[in-house]
Amino acid sequence: MAIFALNQEIIFPPAELAEADGLLAIGGDLSTQRLLLAYRKGIFPWYEGENILWWSPDPRFVLFPEELKISRSMKQILRREPFRFTINMAFSEVIGKCKTISRKGQESTWITEEVRNAYVKLHELGFAHSAEAWNGDRLAGGLYGIRLGNMFFGESMFSSEGNASKFAFIHYVSVLQKEGLKLIDCQVYTNHLESLGARMISRKQFLKLVEIWADEN
User: Fold this and answer.
1) How far apart are CA 62 and CA 199, in angstroms?
2) Is the pTM of this model over 0.85?
3) How much is the pLDDT for 107?
4) What is 61-213's CATH number?
């Protein structure tokens, strides 16, 4: 299959036309309108060099909130409450930490200044949200993503202290579940999220769920 080249028109090809690795299109921009359309179509951006690449992998890695797994050791940590949990108190700082923190096996991050600016704007418009774990006044971990209807599209997380990102994630999933959230998109596989209960579903099933739940109020 061919990789689609996007222009200024705010459209995407069907996600089902993606390459075997999930790559669907290249180019376009990170305007609010294009980003929101992408998420509603089951597509997300990822930079490679100077190019914006658009992906829709099959299968898709997701977490149903009711399937969240908390290990015995993590339950003990949660009972100790080593961090303070907040929501949307430091969005710009969270995405900044996700951008700059060193990650094992990665030489660089996909979060460019253009990406950061685009998601900060989505946050200002009420679409992008963050969850934070604090050690005193120091941001110890957190995550951010896009909320549409009853779906949360996770983008990135960081931890500068042991278990801080897990702490923030577990607390945030609990809050989202109480709000009626149905599905968290984790995009691609990680051991970290699998240990918390995330699993693979087919792209076909994922797209069907996005169509239903992303527009729910």
Assistant:
1) 6
2) yes
3) 44
4) 3.40.630.70
